Predict the 3D structure of the following.
Amino acid sequence: MRVASLVLLCLSLVACSRAPPSPPVVSAPAPPAGDPVEGLRVATRVGCNGCHGPHGAGEVFQENPELGRIVAPNLTQRRALYDDAALTALLREGRTHDGHVPWGMPIKMFQHLSDREVRDITAWLRGLPAVDNPTLPAGQWSESLIRTTNDGTHPWLVDMVPDPGHEPPAAPPTQALALGRHLAYTSCTECHAWDLNGWEGDPAPSLVVAKAYTLEQFTRLMRTGEIAAGGKSKTGMMSGVAAYRYPVMTDEEIAALKLFLDSR
């Protein structure tokens, strides 16, 4: 009888000591699908279809004795090497499918793209009709570029990695000043330096020059490439980039960008 009572007591203690059942695991809702139409607009603004060509078929990005031939590859072929998560890692971190350095990709600019913009770019890229581009030459880096890339001494390598701990927003801000800052850091830093104050020894100026423009003049610059004094920019670079990339921006976006640049 004692033994039976002891067994019952032990069983009751075990039952009482059991942990309560774990709550059911609730999966986070999947993010909404990207919008390929908006993706085209964002890809145009940030330069994807400038460097890789209007149909993503690839183009020679740079060719000179110092660097050799840098080729922006055919996106309609390379996309098969990346799932959506890998495309996000490429844009945000410069992480390529085989570990090569994505030479020329301004990762330090792309890191600021919101989650929604990355999904939209991905949807645009997935929807591009496949294009064969047999005349696109292979890249051929100079010996100097290969050496300084491999040993990590090339000064431009920092442009192709994100800032440590950077957290991108879920979507572009809606408040005008914050939106303007977002647009500046996802559109202008590639040429005007990561702090928007211009590269030393480079003709692209600090964007304090935007303060000399009225909103009307600034809008004309962003739509047509015409500078405040009339005609094209000194080197023609800004005029060409603006005329190709920025007509996709809305009046509200241009006004927000001007507001932010004036506030610096």
